[in-house]
From TrEMBL:
<dbReference type="InterPro" id="IPR050475">
    <property type="entry name" value="Prenyltransferase_related"/>
</dbReference>
<keyword id="KW-0812">Transmembrane</keyword>
<dbReference type="InterPro" id="IPR000537">
    <property type="entry name" value="UbiA_prenyltransferase"/>
</dbReference>
<feature type="transmembrane region" description="Helical">
    <location>
        <begin position="212"/>
        <end position="232"/>
    </location>
</feature>
<keyword id="KW-1133">Transmembrane helix</keyword>
<feature type="transmembrane region" description="Helical">
    <location>
        <begin position="238"/>
        <end position="262"/>
    </location>
</feature>
<dbReference type="InterPro" id="IPR044878">
    <property type="entry name" value="UbiA_sf"/>
</dbReference>
<dbReference type="Pfam" id="PF01040">
    <property type="entry name" value="UbiA"/>
</dbReference>
<keyword id="KW-0472">Membrane</keyword>
<feature type="transmembrane region" description="Helical">
    <location>
        <begin position="175"/>
        <end position="192"/>
    </location>
</feature>
<feature type="transmembrane region" description="Helical">
    <location>
        <begin position="105"/>
        <end position="134"/>
    </location>
</feature>
<dbReference type="GO" id="GO:0016765">
    <property type="term" value="F:transferase activity, transferring alkyl or aryl (other than methyl) groups"/>
</dbReference>
<keyword id="KW-0808">Transferase</keyword>
<feature type="transmembrane region" description="Helical">
    <location>
        <begin position="146"/>
        <end position="163"/>
    </location>
</feature>
<protein>
    <submittedName>
        <fullName>UbiA prenyltransferase family</fullName>
    </submittedName>
</protein>
<feature type="transmembrane region" description="Helical">
    <location>
        <begin position="274"/>
        <end position="291"/>
    </location>
</feature>
<dbReference type="GO" id="GO:0016020">
    <property type="term" value="C:membrane"/>
</dbReference>
Length: 298
């Protein structure tokens, strides 16, 4: 009996570790596609607004943001299951890694964890704004219309950067200039975020979602996006006054994204164009750094 128990203990431990690793990987799969387009810009902006931080504050901000992102992703992928079966079958629910019922339980747990952490950190305001926005986005189906999809997504972007910045800055509230930078960030995404929709045209059309990438003629949608990228680049360069080399890099990234968007209308090409758009967006979020380097407070 003792020998059997001795052999069973390591097996049980290995089983527990394997289950934990599978659960973590499933969680990673929920948000994998949004690590660069969401965490990238939020991380860039937060590090610039908060300045140097310590490891504990950095991890706190990352966990706070990931909890909120995961809450959105789990509910969004329950609501969008039919779309994912067609366009993104690798995601956890359509691939069979987790059931919709279990995902709903996970969603509730993530929402509760987000509010508990926000209450502890003094971040209930961005958390409440965020969850009102994602309920409107998912449960109320406002994301099926391009205008509300853009506005609600922009609110999400602002909240990610808001919470992460406060965590990185050891709980200090944002200054008026930092809030202006976040509002500018939200406005940029509200007016250019349709860049993500060109790669999802088939799935969006299948569920009846009305995005600009579907409603507008392809040439009009793509060239209007290109114009907005260059207009925003010019405005940001004027406002933040970065060095010439950084300004040229921003224009080069906007030009590269434009070139890929307008020369090939395939969804595979649109995925590459969206990557370049995100490189441009992340770089735009770093612009307040030059205000700080000139010795001015953010």
């Amino acid at each position: 009996m003792v020998v059997r128990l001795a052999h069973a203990a390591p097996a049980a431990a290995r089983g527990a570790v394997a289950t934990l690793l599978q659960s973590l990987y499933t969680g990673f799969l929920f948000s994998r596609s949004d690590i660069v387009p969401i965490l990238g810009p939020a991380l860039s902006m937060s590090l610039v607004l908060a300045g140097p931080t310590d490891f504990t504050s950095f991890m706190t901000g990352l966990i706070w943001t990931e909890l909120h992102l995961m809450a959105f992703e789990t509910k969004n992928q329950i609501v969008g299951l039919d779309e994912d079966k067609l366009a993104k079958p690798h995601r956890p629910i359509p691939s069979g890694r987790i059931s919709p019922e279990s995902t709903q339980i996970l969603y509730v747990c993530l929402v509760l964890a987000s509010f508990i952490m926000s209450a502890r950190l003094g971040l209930l305001t961005p958390s409440v704004i965020y969850f009102v926005a994602i309920v409107a986005y998912n449960e109320c189906s406002l994301a099926r219309h391009w205008f509300f999809k853009s506005v609600l997504s922009a609110i999400g972007y602002v909240c990610y950067s808001w919470g992460m910045s406060v965590c990185f800055d050891h709980g200090r509230p944002l200054s008026s200039l930092s809030m202006m930078a976040l509002v500018m960030t939200g406005t940029i995404f509200a007016t250019t975020g349709q860049a993500q929709d060109f790669r999802d045209r088939e799935g969006d059309a299948a569920i009846g979602r009305k995005t600009l990438a579907i409603l507008l003629p392809q040439a009009v949608g793509r060239w209007s996006l290109a114009a907005l990228l260059f207009v925003w680049t010019s405005v940001l360069v004027w406002f933040w006054v970065p060095p010439m080399a950084f300004s040229l890099m921003l224009f080069a990234l906007a030009a590269t994204a434009t070139c890929v968007f307008v020369t090939d209308y395939s969804q595979e090409s649109d995925r590459r164009a969206y990557w370049w758009y995100n490189m441009w967006l992340i770089s735009c979020h770093a612009l307040p750094l030059f205000h700080r380097l000139r010795g001015l407070a953010l």
